[in-house]
Amino acid sequence: MKDWPLWEVFIRTKGGLSHRHAGSVHAADAKMALEHARDTYTRRMEGVSLWVLPSAQIVSSDPADAGPLFEPAEDKIYRHPTFYSIPDHVKHI
Amino acid sequence: MYTTDLSGKDKKQPAPQTVEDPALLAAFEARVANDEFIEPKDWMPEAYRRTLVRQISQHAHSEIVGMLPEGNWITRAPSLRRKAILLAKVQDEGGHGLYLYSAAETLGTSREQMIEALHSGKAKYSTIFNYPTLTWADIGAIGWLVDGAAIMNQVPLQRTSYGPYARAMVRVCKEESFHQRQGYELTMALCAGSKEQKRMAQDALNRWWWPSLMMFGPPDDKSPNTEQSIRWRIKRETNDELRQKFVDVTVPQAEAIGLTVPDAALRWNEARGHYDFGEIDWEEFYAVVRGEGQVAKERMQARVKAWEDGAWVRDAAAAHAAKRAAAKIAAE
């Protein structure tokens, strides 16, 4: 027996929120992946909408590149509002 | 449900020694010591990966095999209410197995390999499921004691160092509480019933108490991998610590419904602030680990039969998917 392909499951818990990763399921096709996602991850009203997508289609960054990718943001504190001092008597800014 | 800690039992097969890069290893150890989570694509020592694959897959197998002793009572549940509850619980156990298999797969093993290992008898699962469920009262005892012991084990695992395992545990723990409460409520109902029903509840406690204590695994001094697992934050508390906690919370629960824990040595120790309890029959434990449990063969036969009887469904689904995919390509 060969395993059915793996699918990643994303759930929108309620209207207004984005879909969030919940886990994965094996399924022969997309329709079955949705059914399995429903049975596996929403037995207690966890969601109002499901996404499933083939795990093989996900492109992810390499943890070894985390430094070059994310560290440059560390010293750019001027991107945060608290970097700027404004006198107390100036309001609504 | 949970799996029994079976570490340190594989003396026949010493783990292959891998020489790790000292710099990578030191960085890994520092991250873990700092309570950071390790994620699937992060570097990890081979021994860490191996330990996790073993522990998570055993845990998954225990959930799946754990469906059997309760599943066989669904058709005999005494009311529609109890039947719906038991059905939901057994379905949850299946779900827990699936979360865990998925977590193990992120470490590079496959579902197929794990299922093959279970069915061929290579993989272990919790010893508790190789005891028979003789009466309806056993369904209460399993929920109350077996799931109770599982919760005790699983709550600290929500902070285990491997991210996918920790996340699966968060989901499992959220669902597990209902399992224990329905079991206790079922036992409570029997205790409030006829003399015969109360006797059934006591009999179930008598038979499930000691096997439940064994679920926490061998004593700390006989569990050589514990130290490493604690250091890597795979385990957060030792077998004996968790066992003591379980005894401390469960004894008053038994007393509250007029049941007697079957242990003559059990007494509150004021100085320790814990219950002292009697010696566990470790010979029995190791015999069950070796596959000599009362219904071990029956469990695996039922499991393999279900898998084989479902083969045509899996084949049909795969054939259907292939046909649809081919038709889609032809249409494009």
Structure description:
The complex is a heterodimer of chains A (93) and B (332). Chain A is 18% helix and 22% strand. Chain A has two helices and three strands; from the N terminus they run ββαβα. Chain A has helices at residues 30-41, 66-70, and strands at 6-12, 20-26, 49-54. Chain A is elongated, with a radius of gyration of 21 Å. Chain B contains 13 helices and two strands. In chain B, helix 2 (46-65) runs antiparallel to helix 4, helix 6 (136-157) crosses helix 10 and helix 7 runs antiparallel to helix 8.
Strands side by side in the biggest sheet of chain A: 2-1-3
Treating each run of at least 4 consecutive H or I residues as one helix, how many helices of chain A? 2
User: In percent, how much strand structure appears in the residues of chain A?
Assistant: 15-25%
Spatial order of strands in the largest sheet of chain B: 1-2
Mean pLDDT of chain A: 95
Low-confidence stretches of chain A: none
* Largest protein-protein interface: A-B, 20 and 27 residues
Q: What does the largest sheet of chain B look like?
A: 2 strands, antiparallel
Walk me through the topology.
The complex is a heterodimer of chains A (93) and B (332).
Chain A: E1 6-12, E2 20-26, H1 30-41, E3 49-54, H2 66-70
Antiparallel strand pairs in A: 1-2, 1-3
Chain B: H1 22-33, H2 46-65, H3 67-71, H4 80-105, H5 111-119, H6 136-157, H7 163-191, H8 195-214, H9 226-231, H10 239-256, E1 267-269, E2 274-276, H11 282-292, H12 296-309, H13 311-331
Antiparallel strand pairs in B: 1-2
Helix pairs in contact in B: 2-4, 4-7, 6-7, 6-8, 6-10, 7-8
